[in-house]
Amino acid sequence: MASGRHYGLILAGGRGTRFWPRSRRAHAKQVLRFLGQRSLIQQTVDRLRPVLPPERLWILTNDYLRAEIVRQLPEVPKRQILAEPAQRNTAPAIGLAAHILQSIDPDAVMGVFPSDHMISKPRRYLQFLRAAFQAAAQGKIVVLGIQPRWPETGYGYVEFPKNVQAGSIKPLAVRRFREKPDLKTATRYVKSGNFYWNAGMFFWKTSVLLDALREYLPKTSTLLASLPAFANRNFASKLKSVFPRCENISIDYAVLENAPQVSGFATDDFGWNDVGSWNAVYQLAPGDASGNVVRGEALAHASSGNYVDAEGKLVALVGVKDLVIVDTPDALLIAHRSSAQEVGEIVKQLEQQRRDGLL
Amino acid sequence: MASGRHYGLILAGGRGTRFWPRSRRAHAKQVLRFLGQRSLIQQTVDRLRPVLPPERLWILTNDYLRAEIVRQLPEVPKRQILAEPAQRNTAPAIGLAAHILQSIDPDAVMGVFPSDHMISKPRRYLQFLRAAFQAAAQGKIVVLGIQPRWPETGYGYVEFPKNVQAGSIKPLAVRRFREKPDLKTATRYVKSGNFYWNAGMFFWKTSVLLDALREYLPKTSTLLASLPAFANRNFASKLKSVFPRCENISIDYAVLENAPQVSGFATDDFGWNDVGSWNAVYQLAPGDASGNVVRGEALAHASSGNYVDAEGKLVALVGVKDLVIVDTPDALLIAHRSSAQEVGEIVKQLEQQRRDGLL
Known about the structure:
Two copies of one chain form a homodimer. Helix content of chain A is 30%, strand content 24%. By secondary structure, the first copy, chain A, is of the alpha/beta class. In chain A, strands 1, 2, 3, 4, 6, 7, 8, 9, 10 and 11 form a ten-stranded mixed sheet that branches. A four-stranded mixed sheet of chain A has the order 13-14-15-16. Chain A has a two-stranded antiparallel ribbon with strand order 5-12. The N and C termini of chain A lie far apart (48 Å). The A-B interface holds A 20-21, 299, 301-302, 310, 313-320, 323, 325, 327, 329-336, 338-340, 342-343, 346-347, 350, 358 and B 20-21, 299, 301-302, 310, 313-320, 323, 325, 327, 329-336, 338-340, 342-343, 346-347, 350, 358. Strand 16 (331-336) of chain A pairs parallel with strand 14 (307-318) of chain B, so a sheet runs across the interface.
C-alpha cells in the first residue's frame, strides 16, 4: 500500500561544543534557548506538530541529556525518548529507530530530523515535509536539499540534475551525494545551481530503510535485528550490549551514497539555519541600534556588533566591537565573532589537555 | 630648630571608579591587590617604613573604606585611621591632619602621600623622601616633581627653572604650578625639560602649612581651628559638623599656587606610576608570551595583549586582542584597552542614570 502512518525521529545526541560555555554535556545545544522562550528541540517539536503529533515522535539522545529532554517535552511519550548506550553516528541511531517502528507498525513511514536547527518559515517547510512523506510512502528514499546561500565547507551536498528548479514541490532523482567539499569545490557547487545542502532531513518507509541497511551495512543490521521487541523487558539491557558494537558511520555514507535511487526535493528558502556557532545566533537575533544582541543586561558605550549572554549580571561594554561574550557561573567565553566557529574545536582540545571537565 | 619628628599623611579617600567593577565604594582602588599580594595602600605603607614607621602614619579615608583599611593595616594605630565626615578635596583633609599633628607635636614635619600609586624603585624614592623631609624641616614648602615620560593631560605640572638637572637631590625653587594642560601645552611642557609632573607628594612643617592655610584659605582654617584637641571626646562629633563646611578645594590650588616660595625636587625615574586605569595595570604586570596578563585562569587561543581578572572562573579567549576583561559576581567589564581611561566616567554616568548602586 502507498500510504502508511507517519513517524518522526528526532536525533538529539549532539553535544554542540561550539556553544560552550553555555552548552555542556547535560545541557547541549538542542536544549538551549538561544532565541525566544523555546529551546531548539522544543521548536523542532512545535514545527513538526501539524504533520507529526508528539505521540508519533521518537527521540534518540544520550544519558547526559535525556532527563532534560523529557522535562522540556512533556507532550512526547517518555518511553519514546531513548538514550543511546554509546555515541555512534547516525546510521546505527536511525537503524535502531527503524527497527522499533517496524515492530510497532510495519507500514511506518519515518522522517528523520535534526533537533538543533531553526526554520523561520515553517509553513513553507511543511509543504515540502508533506510532499516528502508522500514520496517516502511510495517506497522512495527521500532527502530535503536546501538551496545553498554561500559556499559552505561544513555541509555535505546533494547533486541534482542540471537546470533544477528551486522550490518545485516534486521529488527529483538525486545524481550523487557529495561529502563536505573544500572551498574551491564548494564555490563551484554553489555557482552550478544544482548542488544543494544536505541538511540531514530524510524520509523513507522503515521497511525500505531496513532493507537498505541489510544490504549496505550488514553487521549493524544483524546486530539491530538481534534485539527483542521494544515492549520486551529485556530490550534496554540487550541494547546496552548490542549498540556499542554497531558501526560508527553516518547514514549518508552508509546508505545514501550507495543506494541506486534516491529522491530529493530542491527546496527554496524556508529560512533554514543550522545555528552552527554563536555568530549564527547573533545573526538570527534582533539587535539594538548599535547591532548589539543582549541576553541579560548590558550597557554599551562606543560598542557595536556584540553578542552578550550573561543573565543575572550587569555587563558593561566599552569600546569593543564584534565580540561574543558568554558568561556562566564557572566559565566565561570572550571570542571574536569571526572566530566563533573555532570555539568547539578549541574547547574539545582544551578538555583533552586538561581532563577535568570543561564540558 | 631645624629638625622635628616626621609624620606621614596618607590620603585614601579616593574612589577609583576607573577600576569598576573591581572597585566599589567599600573596595576602592587603594585597597585592591592589582599586582602582587599587597594592596596599593599596603604597598604605600611598606615603602615608607624606612623613613616613617607605621606609628607615625595617619590615614584619611571615608566611612565606606575605613573598616577595610583598618583590616589591611594592623600595624597602623587604629585611631590614626580617620574617616572624613564628607568628601572634600585635599586642602581640608591636609589641613585637618596638620591641626591634629600640630596639637600632638608642635615641631611635626609631615609628608603627604597618595595611597594608590606604585613605585618600582623604592630605594631611589627614599633618597628623595629623606631630602624632602630635611628641606621641609627647615621651614620650606616642598613638592616632589616626577620627570615626565609623555605629555600627560591628566596631571598638574611643576615648573622648575630652565636647565634643571633631573635627579639632583637638592631642593630647587619652583617657578610656578600649572594646572592640567591641554595636549598641545603638555607637549610643550615635556619638550621644555623643566616641567615635571605634580604627583601629589608634599612636605612641610605643620606650623608652616597652618600659617599658609590661615593666609590663603581663612574660612577653612578658622573652621579647623575651632576643633577641640584630638584626644577630646567631642572631637569626632565636632568634626562631623565642621568638616562639611570646609571649602572643596585642592591643596595645589589653595596653597601651592599662592605661596611665594615653594621648593621642589626634580626627581629622576624611581618608577612612579599612578595606576590610572586598567591599561596601566596591564602595562605594569608581567604578561605571558602572547602579552596576556591573567589573574585567575584563562585559556588564550589566537588572542594577545589582553588583561583578564576573573578569579574563580575559567576564561576562554578566542581571537581577541587588547581587551580588558574584569569579572565579578554581579558585574562584568569588557573594554578595549585603549578605552580603559573612560571606564570611570562611564560608570559614574551610568550610576547617575540608574541610581541603583553600580558602585
